[in-house]
Specification:
The chain has helices spanning 2-12, 53-61, 118-175, 178-193, 198-226, 229-234, 236-245, 263-284, 327-337, 362-369; strands spanning 17-24, 29-35, 47-49, 65-67, 89-96, 102-110, 251-256, 288-296, 299-306, 341-346, 352-359. With 370 residues, it is of the alpha+beta class. The strands form two sheets. A six-stranded antiparallel β-sheet has the order 3-2-1-6-5-4, sandwiched between helices. A five-stranded mixed β-sheet has the order 7-8-9-11-10, with helices on one face. Strand 8 (288-296) and strand 9 form a beta hairpin. Helix 4 runs antiparallel to helix 5 (198-226). The protein starts with a helix and ends with a helix. Bound molecules: adenosine-5'-triphosphate (ATP) and magnesium ion (MG). Adenosine-5'-triphosphate is lined by residues 279-280, 282-284, 306, 308, 310-311, 316, 319, 325-328, 352.
Length: 370
Protein backbone atom coordinates (compact mmCIF):
# COMPACT_ATOMS: atom_id res chain seq x y z
CA UNK A 1 0.00 0.00 0.00
CA UNK A 2 2.76 2.44 0.99
CA UNK A 3 4.57 1.59 -2.23
CA UNK A 4 1.48 2.13 -4.41
CA UNK A 5 0.81 5.49 -2.76
CA UNK A 6 4.45 6.43 -3.29
CA UNK A 7 4.15 5.74 -7.03
CA UNK A 8 0.88 7.69 -7.31
CA UNK A 9 2.09 10.86 -5.57
CA UNK A 10 5.39 10.79 -7.45
CA UNK A 11 3.48 10.89 -10.73
CA UNK A 12 0.88 13.40 -9.54
CA UNK A 13 3.54 15.89 -8.42
CA UNK A 14 5.99 15.21 -11.28
CA UNK A 15 8.63 14.19 -8.75
CA UNK A 16 11.37 11.59 -9.18
CA UNK A 17 11.20 9.45 -6.07
CA UNK A 18 9.08 9.02 -2.95
CA UNK A 19 9.75 7.39 0.43
CA UNK A 20 7.19 6.41 3.08
CA UNK A 21 8.63 6.09 6.60
CA UNK A 22 6.45 4.57 9.34
CA UNK A 23 6.80 5.20 13.10
CA UNK A 24 7.95 2.09 14.96
CA UNK A 25 6.63 2.51 18.51
CA UNK A 26 8.94 -0.06 20.05
CA UNK A 27 12.03 1.60 18.55
CA UNK A 28 10.72 5.13 19.00
CA UNK A 29 11.93 5.85 15.46
CA UNK A 30 11.07 5.65 11.77
CA UNK A 31 11.41 2.67 9.44
CA UNK A 32 11.28 2.95 5.64
CA UNK A 33 8.18 0.97 4.62
CA UNK A 34 7.62 1.90 0.99
CA UNK A 35 9.49 3.56 -1.89
CA UNK A 36 9.35 4.04 -5.64
CA UNK A 37 11.85 2.25 -7.93
CA UNK A 38 14.80 1.81 -7.73
CA UNK A 39 14.46 1.80 -3.94
CA UNK A 40 11.60 -0.71 -3.52
CA UNK A 41 13.90 -3.39 -2.13
CA UNK A 42 14.97 -1.16 0.78
CA UNK A 43 11.68 -1.49 2.73
CA UNK A 44 12.36 -2.39 6.33
CA UNK A 45 16.11 -1.75 6.07
CA UNK A 46 16.48 2.02 6.58
CA UNK A 47 15.87 3.34 10.10
CA UNK A 48 15.94 6.86 11.51
CA UNK A 49 15.62 8.13 15.05
CA UNK A 50 12.96 10.73 15.80
CA UNK A 51 14.57 14.09 15.09
CA UNK A 52 17.15 12.55 12.74
CA UNK A 53 17.21 13.82 9.11
CA UNK A 54 14.40 15.81 7.53
CA UNK A 55 11.89 12.93 7.96
CA UNK A 56 12.86 12.55 11.63
CA UNK A 57 12.46 16.30 12.15
CA UNK A 58 8.99 16.23 10.53
CA UNK A 59 7.94 13.24 12.67
CA UNK A 60 9.13 14.99 15.84
CA UNK A 61 7.55 18.37 15.08
CA UNK A 62 4.43 17.07 13.31
CA UNK A 63 4.73 19.74 10.61
CA UNK A 64 5.72 19.69 6.93
CA UNK A 65 9.18 20.72 5.72
CA UNK A 66 9.82 22.19 2.26
CA UNK A 67 13.53 21.92 1.38
CA UNK A 68 14.52 23.52 -1.96
CA UNK A 69 18.26 22.89 -1.52
CA UNK A 70 18.94 20.06 0.89
CA UNK A 71 22.71 20.68 0.95
CA UNK A 72 21.99 23.99 2.64
CA UNK A 73 19.50 22.56 5.13
CA UNK A 74 21.08 21.48 8.41
CA UNK A 75 18.27 18.96 9.07
CA UNK A 76 19.32 16.90 6.04
CA UNK A 77 21.12 13.63 6.75
CA UNK A 78 22.98 11.79 3.98
CA UNK A 79 22.05 8.08 3.85
CA UNK A 80 24.22 6.33 1.20
CA UNK A 81 21.55 3.69 0.30
CA UNK A 82 19.07 6.44 -0.59
CA UNK A 83 21.54 8.07 -3.04
CA UNK A 84 21.02 11.62 -1.87
CA UNK A 85 23.62 12.88 -4.34
CA UNK A 86 21.12 12.29 -7.20
CA UNK A 87 18.41 14.58 -5.81
CA UNK A 88 18.37 18.29 -4.99
CA UNK A 89 15.01 19.22 -3.46
CA UNK A 90 12.43 17.58 -1.26
CA UNK A 91 9.17 18.02 0.60
CA UNK A 92 8.34 16.02 3.71
CA UNK A 93 4.87 15.76 5.27
CA UNK A 94 3.79 13.98 8.49
CA UNK A 95 1.15 11.24 8.36
CA UNK A 96 -1.25 12.15 11.16
CA UNK A 97 -3.41 9.41 12.73
CA UNK A 98 -6.87 9.53 14.35
CA UNK A 99 -5.52 10.58 17.74
CA UNK A 100 -3.50 13.43 16.13
CA UNK A 101 -0.27 11.52 16.64
CA UNK A 102 2.33 11.11 13.89
CA UNK A 103 2.25 7.56 12.50
CA UNK A 104 4.70 8.16 9.63
CA UNK A 105 6.24 10.58 7.16
CA UNK A 106 6.04 10.82 3.37
CA UNK A 107 8.98 12.35 1.46
CA UNK A 108 9.05 13.41 -2.19
CA UNK A 109 12.38 14.14 -3.92
CA UNK A 110 13.23 15.92 -7.17
CA UNK A 111 16.42 15.64 -9.20
CA UNK A 112 16.17 19.21 -10.45
CA UNK A 113 16.17 22.07 -7.95
CA UNK A 114 12.60 23.03 -7.18
CA UNK A 115 10.53 24.61 -4.42
CA UNK A 116 7.52 22.43 -3.63
CA UNK A 117 4.43 24.63 -3.25
CA UNK A 118 1.35 24.70 -1.03
CA UNK A 119 -0.53 22.67 -3.61
CA UNK A 120 1.98 19.79 -3.30
CA UNK A 121 1.87 19.96 0.50
CA UNK A 122 -1.96 19.94 0.46
CA UNK A 123 -2.01 16.90 -1.84
CA UNK A 124 0.49 15.05 0.36
CA UNK A 125 -1.58 15.97 3.43
CA UNK A 126 -4.71 14.48 1.90
CA UNK A 127 -3.06 11.31 0.68
CA UNK A 128 -1.21 11.15 3.99
CA UNK A 129 -4.45 11.12 6.01
CA UNK A 130 -5.66 8.06 4.09
CA UNK A 131 -2.31 6.36 4.39
CA UNK A 132 -2.18 7.11 8.14
CA UNK A 133 -5.56 5.34 8.60
CA UNK A 134 -4.26 2.31 6.75
CA UNK A 135 -1.09 2.23 8.85
CA UNK A 136 -3.14 2.52 12.04
CA UNK A 137 -5.53 -0.23 10.95
CA UNK A 138 -2.61 -2.50 10.13
CA UNK A 139 -1.20 -1.85 13.62
CA UNK A 140 -4.58 -2.60 15.23
CA UNK A 141 -4.90 -5.78 13.22
CA UNK A 142 -1.45 -6.90 14.32
CA UNK A 143 -2.24 -6.18 17.98
CA UNK A 144 -5.52 -8.10 17.68
CA UNK A 145 -3.72 -11.06 16.14
CA UNK A 146 -1.22 -11.08 19.03
CA UNK A 147 -4.04 -10.88 21.58
CA UNK A 148 -5.92 -13.69 19.89
CA UNK A 149 -2.82 -15.85 19.97
CA UNK A 150 -2.42 -15.10 23.70
CA UNK A 151 -6.07 -15.99 24.32
CA UNK A 152 -5.59 -19.30 22.53
CA UNK A 153 -2.62 -20.01 24.79
CA UNK A 154 -4.66 -19.06 27.87
CA UNK A 155 -7.42 -21.42 26.79
CA UNK A 156 -4.96 -24.28 26.27
CA UNK A 157 -3.35 -23.65 29.65
CA UNK A 158 -6.73 -23.40 31.36
CA UNK A 159 -7.72 -26.81 30.03
CA UNK A 160 -4.35 -28.18 31.14
CA UNK A 161 -4.70 -26.55 34.57
CA UNK A 162 -8.19 -28.03 34.87
CA UNK A 163 -6.79 -31.50 34.19
CA UNK A 164 -4.02 -31.01 36.78
CA UNK A 165 -6.63 -29.81 39.29
CA UNK A 166 -8.82 -32.85 38.55
CA UNK A 167 -5.91 -35.22 39.08
CA UNK A 168 -5.12 -33.40 42.31
CA UNK A 169 -8.76 -33.68 43.43
CA UNK A 170 -8.85 -37.39 42.57
CA UNK A 171 -5.74 -37.82 44.76
CA UNK A 172 -7.32 -35.79 47.58
CA UNK A 173 -10.51 -37.85 47.49
CA UNK A 174 -8.55 -41.09 47.35
CA UNK A 175 -6.15 -40.24 50.18
CA UNK A 176 -8.55 -38.08 52.18
CA UNK A 177 -12.18 -38.95 52.43
CA UNK A 178 -12.05 -42.47 50.90
CA UNK A 179 -9.78 -43.84 53.65
CA UNK A 180 -12.10 -43.28 56.64
CA UNK A 181 -15.06 -44.45 54.50
CA UNK A 182 -13.33 -47.76 53.75
CA UNK A 183 -12.57 -48.30 57.46
CA UNK A 184 -16.15 -47.31 58.27
CA UNK A 185 -17.42 -50.04 55.95
CA UNK A 186 -15.24 -52.66 57.73
CA UNK A 187 -16.41 -51.55 61.17
CA UNK A 188 -20.07 -51.66 60.12
CA UNK A 189 -19.51 -55.14 58.73
CA UNK A 190 -17.87 -56.14 62.02
CA UNK A 191 -20.84 -54.62 63.88
CA UNK A 192 -23.16 -56.96 61.96
CA UNK A 193 -21.09 -59.92 63.11
CA UNK A 194 -21.50 -58.76 66.73
CA UNK A 195 -25.30 -58.79 66.57
CA UNK A 196 -25.48 -61.09 69.66
CA UNK A 197 -22.59 -59.39 71.50
CA UNK A 198 -23.73 -55.93 72.72
CA UNK A 199 -20.28 -54.88 74.03
CA UNK A 200 -18.58 -55.75 70.73
CA UNK A 201 -21.43 -54.13 68.79
CA UNK A 202 -21.12 -50.88 70.77
CA UNK A 203 -17.36 -50.91 70.31
CA UNK A 204 -17.66 -51.26 66.51
CA UNK A 205 -20.44 -48.65 66.29
CA UNK A 206 -18.43 -46.16 68.32
CA UNK A 207 -15.47 -46.75 65.97
CA UNK A 208 -17.82 -46.21 63.04
CA UNK A 209 -19.05 -42.93 64.57
CA UNK A 210 -15.45 -41.69 65.04
CA UNK A 211 -14.70 -42.55 61.43
CA UNK A 212 -17.81 -40.68 60.26
CA UNK A 213 -16.59 -37.64 62.20
CA UNK A 214 -13.15 -38.01 60.60
CA UNK A 215 -14.71 -38.31 57.13
CA UNK A 216 -16.81 -35.20 57.74
CA UNK A 217 -13.75 -33.29 58.94
CA UNK A 218 -11.91 -34.37 55.82
CA UNK A 219 -14.80 -33.24 53.60
CA UNK A 220 -14.92 -29.85 55.37
CA UNK A 221 -11.18 -29.42 54.93
CA UNK A 222 -11.39 -30.29 51.24
CA UNK A 223 -14.29 -27.86 50.67
CA UNK A 224 -12.47 -25.06 52.50
CA UNK A 225 -9.41 -25.74 50.34
CA UNK A 226 -11.46 -25.66 47.15
CA UNK A 227 -13.24 -22.41 47.87
CA UNK A 228 -12.52 -20.43 51.02
CA UNK A 229 -15.98 -19.58 52.36
CA UNK A 230 -14.70 -16.32 53.87
CA UNK A 231 -14.28 -15.00 50.30
CA UNK A 232 -18.02 -15.40 49.69
CA UNK A 233 -19.06 -14.21 53.12
CA UNK A 234 -16.60 -11.40 53.89
CA UNK A 235 -14.69 -10.51 50.70
CA UNK A 236 -11.02 -10.44 49.81
CA UNK A 237 -9.61 -8.16 52.55
CA UNK A 238 -10.92 -10.14 55.56
CA UNK A 239 -10.07 -13.43 53.80
CA UNK A 240 -6.48 -12.26 53.42
CA UNK A 241 -6.47 -11.28 57.10
CA UNK A 242 -7.60 -14.75 58.12
CA UNK A 243 -5.06 -16.26 55.71
CA UNK A 244 -2.35 -14.20 57.41
CA UNK A 245 -3.31 -15.76 60.76
CA UNK A 246 -2.41 -19.21 59.41
CA UNK A 247 1.21 -18.12 58.80
CA UNK A 248 3.64 -19.77 61.17
CA UNK A 249 7.25 -18.61 61.49
CA UNK A 250 7.76 -15.04 60.32
CA UNK A 251 5.95 -12.11 61.89
CA UNK A 252 3.17 -10.86 59.59
CA UNK A 253 2.55 -7.18 58.93
CA UNK A 254 -0.86 -6.51 57.38
CA UNK A 255 -1.98 -3.44 55.43
CA UNK A 256 -5.36 -4.13 53.92
CA UNK A 257 -7.47 -1.45 52.20
CA UNK A 258 -11.05 -2.09 51.08
CA UNK A 259 -11.00 -3.08 47.41
CA UNK A 260 -13.56 -3.53 44.69
CA UNK A 261 -12.97 -6.45 42.37
CA UNK A 262 -15.06 -8.99 40.49
CA UNK A 263 -15.36 -12.33 42.37
CA UNK A 264 -13.18 -14.32 39.95
CA UNK A 265 -10.36 -11.76 40.36
CA UNK A 266 -10.72 -11.94 44.16
CA UNK A 267 -10.25 -15.72 44.00
CA UNK A 268 -7.16 -15.31 41.80
CA UNK A 269 -5.57 -12.76 44.17
CA UNK A 270 -6.41 -14.91 47.19
CA UNK A 271 -4.77 -17.96 45.61
CA UNK A 272 -1.69 -15.97 44.64
CA UNK A 273 -1.37 -14.62 48.20
CA UNK A 274 -1.84 -18.15 49.56
CA UNK A 275 0.95 -19.60 47.38
CA UNK A 276 3.25 -16.63 48.01
CA UNK A 277 2.80 -17.00 51.79
CA UNK A 278 3.35 -20.75 51.59
CA UNK A 279 6.56 -20.12 49.67
CA UNK A 280 7.69 -17.67 52.36
CA UNK A 281 7.05 -20.30 55.04
CA UNK A 282 8.66 -23.14 53.05
CA UNK A 283 11.66 -21.46 51.46
CA UNK A 284 12.43 -17.92 52.65
CA UNK A 285 13.69 -18.34 56.23
CA UNK A 286 12.23 -14.86 56.76
CA UNK A 287 11.69 -13.11 60.07
CA UNK A 288 9.06 -10.77 58.68
CA UNK A 289 6.52 -10.81 55.85
CA UNK A 290 4.31 -7.94 54.71
CA UNK A 291 0.93 -8.56 53.11
CA UNK A 292 -0.51 -5.46 51.46
CA UNK A 293 -3.71 -4.87 49.53
CA UNK A 294 -4.31 -1.36 48.20
CA UNK A 295 -6.70 0.33 45.79
CA UNK A 296 -5.23 3.51 44.33
CA UNK A 297 -5.79 5.44 41.10
CA UNK A 298 -8.06 2.71 39.76
CA UNK A 299 -5.48 -0.07 40.31
CA UNK A 300 -5.65 -2.75 42.99
CA UNK A 301 -2.25 -3.96 44.12
CA UNK A 302 -1.44 -7.04 46.17
CA UNK A 303 2.09 -7.29 47.57
CA UNK A 304 3.69 -10.11 49.54
CA UNK A 305 7.19 -9.07 50.63
CA UNK A 306 9.55 -11.05 52.83
CA UNK A 307 12.98 -10.33 54.29
CA UNK A 308 14.27 -13.87 53.75
CA UNK A 309 17.26 -15.11 51.77
CA UNK A 310 15.63 -14.82 48.33
CA UNK A 311 16.43 -16.91 45.26
CA UNK A 312 17.64 -16.66 41.68
CA UNK A 313 14.48 -16.76 39.53
CA UNK A 314 16.36 -18.85 36.91
CA UNK A 315 16.73 -21.69 39.45
CA UNK A 316 13.07 -21.79 40.41
CA UNK A 317 11.93 -24.54 38.04
CA UNK A 318 12.09 -27.47 40.48
CA UNK A 319 10.89 -28.04 44.01
CA UNK A 320 12.88 -29.69 46.80
CA UNK A 321 12.05 -33.21 45.57
CA UNK A 322 13.34 -32.40 42.10
CA UNK A 323 9.77 -32.41 40.70
CA UNK A 324 8.62 -29.51 38.51
CA UNK A 325 7.59 -26.61 40.75
CA UNK A 326 4.08 -25.34 39.99
CA UNK A 327 3.73 -22.56 42.55
CA UNK A 328 5.29 -19.62 40.69
CA UNK A 329 4.05 -20.84 37.29
CA UNK A 330 0.54 -21.24 38.68
CA UNK A 331 0.62 -17.73 40.17
CA UNK A 332 1.62 -16.27 36.82
CA UNK A 333 -1.10 -18.17 34.99
CA UNK A 334 -3.79 -17.16 37.44
CA UNK A 335 -2.71 -13.53 37.07
CA UNK A 336 -2.70 -13.68 33.26
CA UNK A 337 -6.11 -15.30 33.14
CA UNK A 338 -7.73 -12.40 35.01
CA UNK A 339 -5.75 -9.72 33.12
CA UNK A 340 -3.44 -8.91 36.06
CA UNK A 341 0.28 -8.13 35.96
CA UNK A 342 2.47 -10.28 38.18
CA UNK A 343 6.08 -9.48 39.07
CA UNK A 344 8.28 -11.67 41.23
CA UNK A 345 11.54 -9.95 42.14
CA UNK A 346 14.18 -11.65 44.20
CA UNK A 347 17.94 -11.89 44.40
CA UNK A 348 19.83 -14.44 46.47
CA UNK A 349 20.68 -12.91 49.84
CA UNK A 350 17.90 -10.32 49.81
CA UNK A 351 14.18 -10.88 50.27
CA UNK A 352 11.46 -11.62 47.75
CA UNK A 353 8.61 -9.42 46.53
CA UNK A 354 5.54 -10.77 44.76
CA UNK A 355 3.46 -7.94 43.30
CA UNK A 356 0.16 -8.31 41.41
CA UNK A 357 -1.70 -5.40 39.88
CA UNK A 358 -5.16 -5.36 38.34
CA UNK A 359 -7.69 -2.64 37.39
CA UNK A 360 -10.21 -1.86 40.13
CA UNK A 361 -13.97 -1.67 39.54
CA UNK A 362 -14.35 0.93 42.28
CA UNK A 363 -16.79 3.19 40.37
CA UNK A 364 -19.34 0.55 39.43
CA UNK A 365 -19.16 -1.33 42.76
CA UNK A 366 -19.55 1.82 44.81
CA UNK A 367 -22.64 2.71 42.84
CA UNK A 368 -24.01 -0.80 43.32
CA UNK A 369 -23.27 -0.78 47.04
CA UNK A 370 -25.11 2.50 47.46
N1 LIG B 1 9.70 -16.29 49.07
C1 LIG B 1 10.69 -17.11 48.65
N2 LIG B 1 11.90 -17.10 49.26
C2 LIG B 1 12.91 -17.89 48.84
N3 LIG B 1 12.79 -18.77 47.82
C3 LIG B 1 11.64 -18.84 47.16
C4 LIG B 1 10.50 -18.02 47.53
N4 LIG B 1 9.49 -18.29 46.68
C5 LIG B 1 9.94 -19.23 45.85
N5 LIG B 1 11.23 -19.58 46.12
C6 LIG B 1 12.08 -20.51 45.38
O1 LIG B 1 11.49 -20.75 44.11
C7 LIG B 1 11.26 -22.13 43.93
C8 LIG B 1 10.00 -22.33 43.13
O2 LIG B 1 8.83 -21.96 43.87
P1 LIG B 1 7.48 -22.66 43.53
O3 LIG B 1 6.42 -22.10 44.42
O4 LIG B 1 7.28 -22.55 42.06
O5 LIG B 1 7.75 -24.17 43.85
P2 LIG B 1 7.82 -24.94 45.25
O6 LIG B 1 7.26 -24.07 46.34
O7 LIG B 1 9.20 -25.46 45.44
O8 LIG B 1 6.86 -26.18 44.97
P3 LIG B 1 5.28 -26.14 44.82
O9 LIG B 1 4.83 -24.71 44.95
O10 LIG B 1 5.03 -26.68 43.43
O11 LIG B 1 4.78 -26.99 45.91
C9 LIG B 1 11.22 -22.71 45.32
O12 LIG B 1 11.59 -24.06 45.30
C10 LIG B 1 12.21 -21.85 46.05
O13 LIG B 1 13.52 -22.30 45.81
MG1 LIG C 1 5.48 -23.06 46.12
Amino acid sequence: MAEQVAVLVTEATASDVCFVHVVDETRKGLVLMGATPPFTGLSGTVELDLGQGVAGWVALHAEPAVVPDKWKDERYLYIPELRGEDYESLVSVPLIGRGQQVVGVINLHSRKPRRYGDHDVALLNQVGTLLARTIENAGLYERLAVREHMLEQFAARTVEAQEIERRHLAGEIHDGISQPLISLWYHLQAAEAHASDPAGLIHELSKARDLTTAALEEARRAIAGLRPSTLDDLGLGPSLESLAHTVTGPEVELQIDPCHLPPHVEVALYRIAQEALQNVMKHAGASRVTLQLSDQHGRVQLVVEDDGHGFAPGQAGRNRNGDPAYGLVGMRERAELVGANLEVSSTPGSGTVVRVEVPSIRQSSTTRAE
